[in-house]
Amino acid sequence: MSHRHHDRSPIRVWRWPVVIGALTSAGLTCALFSDGGWGDHVANVCLAIPVGVCCWFGWRPSKP
Questions:
Q1: What are the distances in angstroms from CA 56 to CA 39, 49, 59, 62?
Q2: What span, in angstroms and rounded, lies between the C-alpha atoms of 38 and 62?
Q3: Tens place of pLDDT for every residue, the chain, 64 residues?
Q4: How many Å apart are CA 39 and CA 3, to the nearest integer?
Q5: Cα–Cα distance between 37 and 11 in angstroms, integer?
Q6: How many other CB atoms sit within 10 Å of the CB of residue 28?
Q7: Number of domains in the chain
């Protein structure tokens, strides 16, 4: 059996959780401070992406 070397650097591990957190923070901030117009659209997009990612990975069949 050969063991594969996995690169577990902090940047590689935390890259996508930080991106999703930043999108969520940006969406919540835009929703809080916008009063219609483009701010609502930015908030909707920024908040829809993390929900879509969670749905994608939540309903995806797990590997055996």
A1: 26, 10, 6, 12
A2: 38
A3: 555 666 778 888 899 999 999 999 999 999 999 988 999 999 999 999 999 999 999 988 877 7
A4: 49
A5: 36
A6: 13
A7: 1
Instruction: Tell me the pTM.
Output: 0.75
Q: What is the 3-state secondary structure (H, E, C) of the chain?
A: CCCCCCCCCHHHHHHHHHHHHHHHHHHHHHHHHCCCCHHHHHHHHHHHHHHHHHHHHHHCCCCC
For 64, the token pair is 């055996």
Domain extent, residue 38, equals 15-59
Single out the residue of 21, 23, 19, 18 nearest to residue 45, CA to CA.
Answer: 23
Report if residue 9 sits inside a domain: no
